[in-house]
Amino acid sequence: MELQQRVNAFVKLGHFLSLFTASPKANDIDKAFIDGFKLQLKLAQEHNGWFTKNNLDFALQSWTDALSEDNLNKWTANYNFDTVNPQTIAIIMAGNIPLVGFHDFLSVLICGHSVLVKQSSNDKHLLPYLAKYLELLEPNFKGKITFTEDKLENFDAVIATGSNNTARYFEYYFKDKPSIIRKNRNSVAILTGNETHEQLEALSDDIFRYYGLGCRNVSKIYIPNDYNFDAFFRGVFKWKDIINESKYANNYDYNKAVYIMSEFDMLENGFLMVKEDQSFGSPIATVFYEKYSDTESLKQHLESQKDNIQCVVADGFTDSEIPFGKTQQPQLWDYADSVDTVDFLLKL
Signal as a keyword (predicted)? Predict the structure, then answer.
């Protein structure tokens, strides 16, 4: 199968996903699969209370945008696929947000390898159905996509995502295989106090999208010593209705009670708590903050903590920063943990 065949198949898959976020004309093949995927979306919502329709819609729209012909061609133009040695790549996926493992799945197949997928029980309905549709679009994918719930066997390399604890297990278990092992990471935002209201509103999307469960969600902000939180709370106000969602509200109430009983200082506005803390991973409904005196010292601090950080959201702070509101809209070439997955796969 040529690279262009693989690209074309994923372009068509992107079109299929667009049918659930807009109303373009569906062809006969799409029509046959639409009802089935609607059922999978319904099952995903029922199985995982964090996978609301709003979050599923956002995930589908993100992949619709990413899987354009221009994006796929721009992404693949950076590599030489002519010398790939086809192998079987095992992927152990997380399940914190919908289709969180899709980029690894896409990368393996676009490189010409076969994929052996072990999904999280929290996100097990969507990808197998999309894989069947992909095989219909491009029959040469048949036999190259396998899902398993059993022990992983007969694979040549592995991409595994998990917590810091499971990562230690992965590193030991897969020590004899080429691997990418991903651990806990969180994203941070750098505020100066000069942000516009529009920027702070956009930041609220980085905080609240997917309830803050993704590694690209901002869980911590760095603020100047004299920072006034009034503008910040005005900016995040557009997400006020999130407190009406029961799972989020339960976490908010629980964490607030813990903070009060522990006599921790914190600020809150009825749906978000802000607490000073040196940690990166904040609980649901909480954002941690830490103060800084000068930007150079902060840059040194963040460099020393780079293994804990996925994204840095800022405006004019660093060359690798992400604009406010864009953390959950990565491009195909924005790799998790800054590890080039395709380069790893092509060198096997």
Answer: no
d(CA 70, CA 292): 41
Structure tokens at 64: 């619709």
Helices 102-110, 126-137: axis angle to 10 degrees equals 30
- Tell me how many domains the chain contains: 2
Taking alpha carbons only, the member of 223, 184, 185 closest to residue 203 is 223
**Has residue 187 got a pLDDT over 70?**
yes
The CATH number given to whatever domain includes residue 36 is 3.40.605.10
Q: What is the domain extent for residue 293?
A: 186-313
Q: What pLDDT is recorded for position 33?
A: 87
Looking at the structure, do residues 244 and 148 belong to the same domain, yes or no? no
SS3 191: coil
Which residue in this structure is represented by tokens 């009825």?
270
Q: Is residue 115 part of a domain?
A: yes
- Residues 6+ positions from 141 with CB-CB distance below 8 Å: 1, 9, 109, 131, 134, 135
Secondary structure letter of residue 157 according to DSSP: E
Distance CA 293, CA 270 (A): 30
Question: 97 and 35, same structural domain?
Answer: yes
Based on the fold, state whether residues 88 and 197 are members of the same structural domain.
no
pLDDT digits (tens, 9 = 90+) for 257-315: 999 999 999 999 999 999 999 999 999 999 999 999 999 999 999 999 999 999 999 99
CB–CB of 213/284 below 8 Å? yes
Looking at the fold, whether 135 and 264 belong to one and the same domain comes out as no
